[in-house]
Amino acid sequence: MRFSIEEGGTMGRKIKIWYDREGCIGAAACAAADPKNWIMNDDGKADLVGGKKEGDNWIKIYEMDEADWDAVKEGAEACPVAVIKIYDEKGNQLA
Ligand code: SF4
User: What is the pLDDT of residue 11?
Assistant: First the structure.
């Protein structure tokens, strides 16, 4: 589902990327799909570029360009163990 349709555009809208790094198995699908947000670390797990640790997880909140949405969504949905989730400002899960 593209939230741009219902919400009147993604340009300049804040999204939250949520990441459970403990659960990452190093498949690298996220980094392939969305290299702006994901990079593989030497320990074999993905790092969330610009992310901050919050409790046991990592998060990143930023204003996303419309053009980046497909990659952001695919980066989350490509993860085989579903440790990446995307939320809008209201906490609705987008991917
Ligand atoms: S796709 Fe999922 S399991 Fe693979 S590196 Fe990214 S976060 Fe880790």
Answer: 54
Does the residue 95 lie in any domain?
Answer: no
| Per-residue model confidence as pLDDT tens digits over 60-95 | 999 999 899 999 999 999 999 999 999 998 999 999
Structural domain includes residue 56: yes
Q: Name the E strands within the chain.
A: 13-19, 38-40, 46-48, 52-54, 57-64, 84-88
pTM value surpassing 0.85: yes
Total domains, the chain: 1
Residue of 21, 74, 83, 86 best suited for mutating to test ligand 1, as the one with most atoms within 8 Å of CB: 83
Does the CB atom of residue 81 touch ligand 1 within 6 A?
Answer: yes
If you count them, how many residues does the chain have? 95
* pLDDT score, position 4: 45
Please state, in angstroms and rounded to a whole number, the distance separating the CA atoms of residues 3 and 16. 14
